[in-house]
Write a structure and sequence with these properties.
Layout lengths: L7 E6 L8 H10 L7 E5 L2 H9 L4 E4 L1
Antiparallel strand pairs: 1-2, 1-3
Helix pairs in contact: 1-2
């Protein structure tokens, strides 16, 4: 069986990390986000999806 490549997802930062927990700020930086309205395109691996779930109230996701 051939392994499928994870699909790309677009993540846009919609919320400010001001007055948030340090771990949430670090998660945003780990995703490549550090300013409002910034968008990154990453592979939808389980690790990335877990990070997105942690800061779901600060980002929006498109497939």
């Amino acid at each position: 069986m051939a392994q499928e490549k994870p699909k790309k997802i677009k993540i846009t930062q919609t919320g400010s990390p001001i007055r948030r927990d340090k771990t949430q700020r670090a998660t945003l930086v780990g995703l490549g986000l550090n300013k409002m309205r910034r968008t990154v395109e990453v592979e939808g691996t389980p690790e990335v999806l877990g990070q997105v779930r942690k800061v779901a109230h600060l980002v929006s996701v498109e497939k």
